[in-house]
């Protein structure tokens, strides 16, 4: 079901693809997203962390704010200043600075505030990538497409927000800011930050809605000058690994939801030793019987 042409969506949308949905509205939909599934897949975290995220949301860090603003400026530059206000440099220790900031704050009501230095960097990044061949990944389609679907195995309602979608291919593209977009470095990021699971989850949803298996690409952009960038299409094995990870996390979510129990690591006393390298550093042979 394709509902991209819809200008408005119901409070609780039916399965489909939606365009022109405000981020605040999307975030209010009480469906399973990749952020909570990523917590459930992380061996260093537990379901109790996932429940806290569901109840309180995710901390909005400077890195998240910068990445969100960069995406908005590159993908929807004509609408950027409807959502963002750039804070001028002013010394709020002075009377004049305090007054200038109060005037800015009043004018920026309802918008997300972006620091001037971050805005300058985002403009430089956009100029750097504007003539890149990688820009083909975000041309000829639509940005910020929201997907809603029901997972067949668990019955859970799920949601995703594609940075960019090219229907004719079909292909989903995600923008990522990074410190290293070399093939070797970014391949590690795909695993370390769970981008493979995000890709698998999105592909599962798209297949459920359209019957088509989409390609999944990443437009990776380094955050520091000279703003090196690269485009990658994730391979079939990486996508399949992501689907498997997403399915496992969905099952765990369903189990916690049905039981009403979001456990911590263990309720029992567990024997714990330092890592092998740490034991060896202090003269312990962990392999000695």
Task: Show the helix and strand layout.
Elements (H helix, E strand, L loop, with lengths): L1 E2 L12 E3 L4 H6 L5 H8 L5 H10 L5 H14 L4 H4 E4 L7 H13 L4 E4 H14 L12 E9 L6 E10 L4 E8 L4 H10 L2 H16 L4 E8 L6 E5 L2 H24 L16 H6 L8
Parallel strand pairs: 1-2, 3-4, 7-8
Antiparallel strand pairs: 2-5, 5-6, 6-7, 8-9
Give a concise summary.
With 289 residues, the chain is of the alpha/beta class. It is 43% helix and 18% strand. The protein has one domain (2-259): Lambda Exonuclease, Chain A.
Describe the structure.
With 289 residues, this protein is α/β, with parallel strands linked by helices. It has one domain: Lambda Exonuclease, Chain A (Alpha-Beta Complex), CATH 3.90.320.10. It is 43% helix and 18% strand. It contains eleven helices and nine strands. A hairpin with a 4-residue loop joins strand 6 (157-166) and strand 7. Helix 4 crosses helix 7 and helix 9 crosses helix 10 (236-259).
């Amino acid at each position: 079901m394709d509902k991209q042409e819809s200008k408005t969506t119901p409070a609780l949308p039916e399965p489909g693809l939606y365009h022109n949905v405000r981020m605040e509205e999307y975030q209010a939909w009480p469906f399973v997203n990749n952020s909570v599934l990523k917590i459930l897949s992380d061996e260093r975290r537990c379901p109790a962390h996932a429940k806290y995220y569901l109840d309180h949301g995710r901390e909005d860090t400077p890195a998240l704010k910068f990445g969100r603003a960069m995406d908005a400026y590159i993908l929807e530059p004509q609408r950027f200043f409807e959502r963002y206000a750039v804070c001028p440099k002013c010394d709020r220790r002075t009377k004049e600075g305090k007054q200038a900031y109060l005037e800015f704050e009043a004018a920026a009501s309802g918008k997300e505030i972006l620091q001037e230095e971050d805005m300058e960097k985002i403009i430089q990044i956009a100029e750097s990538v504007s003539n890149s061949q990688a820009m083909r990944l975000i041309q000829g389609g639509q940005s910020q497409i929201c997907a809603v679907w029901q997972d067949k195995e668990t019955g859970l309602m799920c949601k995703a927000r594609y940075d960019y979608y090219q229907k004719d291919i079909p292909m989903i593209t995600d923008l990522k800011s990074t410190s290293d977009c070399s093939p070797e470095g970014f391949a590690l990021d795909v695993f370390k930050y769970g981008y493979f699971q995000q890709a698998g989850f999105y592909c599962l949803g798209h297949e459920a809605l359209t019957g088509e298996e989409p390609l999944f690409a990443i437009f990776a952009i380094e955050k520091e000058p000279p703003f090196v960038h690269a485009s990658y299409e994730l391979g079939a094995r990486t996508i399949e690994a992501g689907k498997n990870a997403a399915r496992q996390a969905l099952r765990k979510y369903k189990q916690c939801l049905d039981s009403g129990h979001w456990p911590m690591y263990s309720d029992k006393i567990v024997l714990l030793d330092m890592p092998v390298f740490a034991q060896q550093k202090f003269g312990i042979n962990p392999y000695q019987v």
